[in-house]
Specification:
The chain starts with a helix and ends in a 29-residue tail after the last helix. Helix 1 packs across helix 5, helix 2 packs across helix 4 and helix 3 packs across helix 4. A two-stranded antiparallel sheet has the order 1-2. A hairpin with a 7-residue loop joins strand 1 and strand 2. The protein has five helices and two strands; from the N terminus they run ααααββα. With 156 residues, the protein is mostly helical. 56% of the residues lie in helices and 6% in strands.
């Protein structure tokens, strides 16, 4: 069934609002995590690898490099750093000793879950229609052009 012009314009409007809102939302979420997460922030490359391994437990370094669009030697360096921090485990493939499979540690899974919980709670508070309304740019009706919040919204 063909998409109507009105429906297409609605989708374009939502897409435009998301393009404007998502970078500001990302910055607000990162500030919130920086304030409330008790562990040092990992560089984005290490976080991306941790998230990938969490999603694809047992992935090889080569597969991770392909998925992250990085060179295997760079991913191997990230793996070494994360294993040193006890956030990843390298397990040798029983059939091919040259291949290592990556697994998240319990610590990594717990920390990633905590960050997700913090971000989810912040977005949920910001999206509530009461009080200040949308505390994050783009959340809630007519808020796509709202400035970034100076501080995280408070729960009522």
């Amino acid at each position: 069934m063909p998409t109507s012009s009105a429906s297409s314009r609605g989708i374009d409007h939502v897409a435009s609002a998301l393009v404007v809102s998502l970078p500001a939302l990302h910055r607000a979420l990162e500030r919130q995590v920086d304030q409330e997460f008790p562990h040092p922030r990992l560089p984005e490359g290490r976080l991306a690898l941790l998230r990938l391994v969490e999603d694809r437990e047992g992935i090889t370094i080569r597969e991770a490099a392909d998925a992250l669009l990085r060179k295997p030697n760079n991913v191997s360096a990230l793996v070494s750093q994360l294993t040193g921090q006890e956030l990843l485990e390298r397990r040798q493939d029983p059939a091919d000793k040259r291949v290592a499979h990556l697994h998240s540690t319990a610590t990594a899974r717990q920390r990633l879950a905590e960050v997700r919980r913090l971000k989810t709670a912040y977005v949920a508070r910001a999206a509530r229609p009461h009080g200040r309304g949308a505390g994050c740019p783009g959340l809630g009706p007519g808020r796509a052009d709202a400035p970034e919040p100076a501080s995280p919204p408070t729960a009522d």
